[in-house]
Design a protein that fits this description.
By secondary structure, this protein is mainly β. Helix content is about 5%, strand content about 50%. The chain contains four helices and 45 strands. A hairpin with a 7-residue loop joins strand 22 and strand 23. Helix 1 runs antiparallel to helix 2 (about 25-50). Residues about 1-60 have low confidence and may be disordered.
Length: about 750
């Protein structure tokens, strides 16, 4: 399906939902005109938009090709590459820099080999290094970010759709890092697959051996050709290299630039894993007459491979006791705060169900399931079906929560289907339903969301994407729709993006998230230039990044809701230091008085103005590094001075202490106030799979400080022993508020292996 066909299909989908939902005629014509323009551009774009900008920057059209060989005897995974299995394997080398000198050969060689048998895929990598004593290791805990240390990563596009993949990575200490990528977006490292890696450091560098069971991957029938790429970081020079060259502006997730892995004839091993758990807890609230409650429970998760490309996940009596608590936030706005999802079951394959506008508007937000007003709601169980069927990405989720007192239980259903087409393009739809269940539920206790989305990529630089949605809520009248169109150009040097969106006042995705309610129109523009001229390097800088963002929200019936301006230049030093001075603007159209702080009421009117922001980061490769941010200027109808300080201490990747303190001093005509928010996260890694971590938080707005202490002894795929202690203390002299102690053990049983 070419760009013209895709654009025409998207137009028909837009018209179908718009007219069915009685969208305003001006919005309909705006979308029709925009889509017709894209339809015309799609016809001429291959010859125009695919051109590389003038200059000496290299092209990235040629993609390397490698082969994988079948072996009879699997290599021993010990990090030492002395097995016969590697002797006849093709060597994949010739890495190219993305940072700091785009298009130049890597300063140090890397050799990769890939073989397979009926059980697993095996990857070996030799990272040659003339001075291994300068290898940088900043963390040794599983799923630690590999960006700020010497590391090696693999991405496998097992369906060769150039948009979705799985990432496996490690550092010289043998840490395990894995993630999922959807639509060439940000890697979601919440996914925990079952695989192994071992490393060793020698006088000539370091090496790694990976064993990735075929049961961990999803792929089509034999013979297979996969997309593949490898990334090596050489952190002492902040060098980033790839086997298949990628422009500086992109990362490993840029699967449309990946190479190919051929000669695969993988069979489809059956997959059936059961993960039972047992948990015991003690909970004491220190209110008057309170006692200590003791509780024990059991439950399980299960994974069943229906086909090599379709997987069923089931859960019963779901428990998330091992998950880290939320970071404290202080809300000084009229809008909703968003707390991130941290529960493993909902994080896995979460990118498949993501439709909307980032953190501002999300049509499916899994924290609506099992969490209400910050408290936990028991989840009886549920299931998720995800994978590919005849080239279509399919996701089906159903979860059932229990009743709490007179509050009824709820059944949640999500249906998602999408398809990728050539040219970084794709389209899909989603349906979300919530229905009250049980004797306390009323007949009108339900809510539904319907949505369609699409993206169109032309050449390597031009992208346009958008979504349209409507909701159904009994008894709620008005404009129950939302849509957004986002168009941008990014060739690695010049970047421009414009957006337009509308959210109706009756739009109500109850299983989603809407930051700004009441209805609005959204306009946004971003311009950015990446500057890496020789004159800049001669001054000791790697990059200048001047940019300007302007986002404006208007009430749907007219008048300012809020607007933000950001004008900045990033000064990135070659030695790892960073500095920026920004001109910021914030304006608020307050239509109803609101309480920004206890006893301080902001009146009706247009408020706001300009402010300055200063940001300074020191070199994170050092044992001690810091970040300073200071905002000074207008806040609503007054002024603020808000410093934020972060200090990070690291010791050989085992110990890290990350401390942040945020102080806000605000003076309004209605009164002055201050807020303080602090947290300290201390982590000690005994091994890559055994660690202890504490999170100490202070919030003077809620007059509480809290401690979250966790000990994890991981086995595989997020299983193992978990010990958790939570303590919440009051600041007003009343002492402890609540203390909880939890012990949980999860074990994985592979029933077909």
């Amino acid at each position: 399906m070419g760009p013209r066909s895709l654009t025409l299909l998207f137009t028909l989908l837009l018209l179908r939902i718009f007219f069915h939902a009685e969208f305003p005629i001006d919005a309909v014509w705006a979308v029709i005109c925009t889509t017709l323009l894209l339809f015309l551009v799609a016809g001429m774009a291959p010859s125009v938009l695919a051109q590389e900008p003038d200059g000496e920057r290299p092209t990235f059209g040629e993609r390397p090709i490698g082969t994988a060989g079948r072996v009879a005897d699997a290599p021993v995974i010990d990090g030492v590459l002395d097995d016969r299995a590697w002797e006849g394997a093709e060597v994949l080398s010739g890495f190219t820099q993305s940072e700091p000198f785009q298009g130049q050969p890597a300063s140090l060689n890397t050799d990769v080999r890939i073989v397979y048998d009926d059980e697993a895929l095996y990857v070996s990598a030799v990272m040659h290094d003339s001075d291994p004593s300068r290898i940088v290791t900043t963390d040794t805990r599983r799923d630690s970010s590999l960006n700020d240390m010497d590391s090696f990563q693999i991405i496998l596009d097992t369906y060769h759709d150039q948009q979705n993949g799985s990432v496996f990575g490690t550092n010289a200490a043998g840490v395990q890092y894995d993630a999922q990528v959807r639509n060439q977006g940000r890697a979601e490292d919440s996914w925990d697959g079952s695989w192994d890696v071992m490393t060793s450091v020698t006088e000539t560098g370091w090496s790694a051996e990976f064993r990735i069971p075929l049961r961990t991957l999803r792929y089509g029938p034999a013979p297979q050709t996969w997309g593949v790429n490898f990334q090596r970081n050489i952190q002492r020079t902040r060098e980033r290299t790839y086997w298949a060259p990628i422009p500086q502006v992109f990362d490993l997730e840029r699967l449309s630039s990946a190479g190919e892995l051929r000669n695969l004839a993988l069979q489809a091993p059956r997959n059936f894993k059961v993960l039972p758990y047992v948990v015991s807890s003690a909970n004491r609230s220190f209110g008057q007459g309170a006692t200590t409650g003791y509780n024990g429970d059991i439950g399980f998760d299960a994974k069943f491979g229906i086909t090599p490309s379709l997987n069923l996940d089931a859960t019963y009596n779901t428990d998330f006791a091992q998950v880290e608590v939320d970071n404290e936030q202080i809300n000084l706005t009229r809008f909703n705060l968003r707390f991130p999802e941290k529960r493993p079951f909902f994080l896995e394959n979460s990118g498949l169900f993501r439709v909307g506008k980032g953190n501002e508007l999300d049509l499916f937000f899994s924290r609506r399931i099992g969490i209400s007003d910050g408290g936990l709601v028991p989840i009886i169980g549920g299931g998720r079906l995800s994978g590919k069927v005849s080239g279509v990405n399919v996701g089906v989720l159903n979860m059932q929560t229990d009743a709490v007192g007179s509050t009824p239980g709820n059944n949640y259903s999500v249906l998602r289907a999408s398809r990728e087409v050539r040219g970084r393009s794709g389209f899909g739809f989603m349906f979300v339903n919530r229905a009250g269940t049980g004797s306390f539920a009323q007949s009108d206790d339900w809510n539904r969301t319907w949505a369609g989305d699409a993206r169109l990529g032309l050449g390597e630089a031009f992208t346009t994407s958008g979504f349209i949605a409507r909701t159904e809520t009994p008894g709620r009248a008005g404009r129950a729709y939302a849509y957004n169109i986002d168009t941008g150009w990014d060739d690695g040097q010049h970047s421009a993006r414009v957006e337009y969106g509308v959210t109706g006042e009756a739009f109500n995705p109850e299983v989603g998230f809407v930051q700004k309610t009441g209805g609005y129109r959204r306009y946004a523009i971003r311009l950015q230039e990446t500057m890496r001229q020789d004159a800049i390097r001669a001054l000791g800088f790697r990059e200048f990044l001047p940019h300007v963002n302007y986002t404006r929200y208007e009430n749907i019936d007219g008048g300012l809701l809020t607007a933000d301006l950001h004008v900045d230049n990033h000064w990135d030093w070659e030695n790892g230091n960073f500095f920026s001075v920004a001109l910021n603007g914030s304006w608020e159209g307050v239509s109803e008085p609101f309480e920004v702080y206890p006893g301080i009421i902001v009146p009706v009117g247009d408020h706001g103005g300009l402010s300055a922001g200063i940001r300074l980061n020191s070199d994170v490769r050092k044992p001690v590094s810091g970040r300073v941010q200071w905002d000074i200027g207008r806040f609503l109808n007054g002024d603020e001075s808000s410093p934020r300080l972060t200090v990070l201490l690291r010791d050989s990747g085992r110990l890290s202490v990350d401390t942040t303190w945020t102080h806000r001093s605000i003076t309004l005509p209605q009164g002055a106030f201050r807020t303080n928010l602090g947290n300290m996260r201390v982590t000690y890694n005994f091994t890559p799979s055994v660690f202890v971590q504490s999170l100490l938080q202070y919030n003077d707005r809620s007059e509480r400080w809290s401690t979250n202490l966790r000990f994890h002894w991981l086995e595989t795929a997020g299983t193992g022993l978990f010990v958790v202690y939570n303590d919440t203390e009051s600041l007003n002299g009343l002492g402890p508020v609540n203390r909880v102690f939890v012990v949980k053990y999860v074990r994985q049983f592979d029933l077909l292996n």
